[in-house]
Amino acid sequence: MSGWMIFLWIGMIGQRLAELRLADKNARWMRQKGGYESGHEHYRYIVGLHVLFFAGILTEVVWLGAAPPAVWPVLLLLFLMVQGVRVWCIRSLGRYWNTRIWIVPGHAPQVRGPYRYLRHPNYAVVLAEFILFPSLFGAYGTAVVGTFLNWLLLVFVRIPAEEKALSEATPYEIQMGEKKRFFPSFRPR
């Protein structure tokens, strides 16, 4: 594994750890505002999938000899653009952003930034990361299997649990209207 690959791989893990710290800080704030966690049963599967994702990349590179494709600069540029959207999502939700499902009853869902155009831009970012990040390393098995498993977990478990919890405690459906989950809707209101 070359130097830039190690730096990128470790940097991405560092980003995830920093996000967990931010999520914990935001959870404490939401708890003080009367918030509560919902859907905690499936969170361990999300964490497990992310751990396996990073392990899969490492396995493919170190033991299976995966190498960056010739188009890695393009993939890196796309990946960095996706990271920009990730930061936009986190900043748009502010203290409401979390890796877990936190609900603050009576607080309206945030519809700033990319949330003006779709319901779950952060999950769209994660799906794009699951494709782009391992592809940068030539770890195509991890890209395909990881993306598929992540999609299953999001579409059939995480998003339904999150939308149900938000709909029960906030004006989520009114705020989100006809927005799609992953693909932007640019229709004027």
From TrEMBL:
One of its GO terms (cellular component) is membrane. Gene3D superfamilies: 1.20.120.1630. Signal peptide: none annotated. GO terms for molecular function: protein C-terminal S-isoprenylcysteine carboxyl O-methyltransferase activity. It comes from the Bacteria. The chain crosses the membrane at residues 43-64, 70-90, 123-149. InterPro entries: ICMT_MeTrfase, Metal_cation-efflux_comp. It is a multi-pass membrane protein. Keywords: Membrane, Methyltransferase, Transferase, Transmembrane, Transmembrane helix. Coiled coil: none annotated. Its main location: membrane. GO terms for biological process: methylation. It is found in: Membrane. This is Methyltransferase.
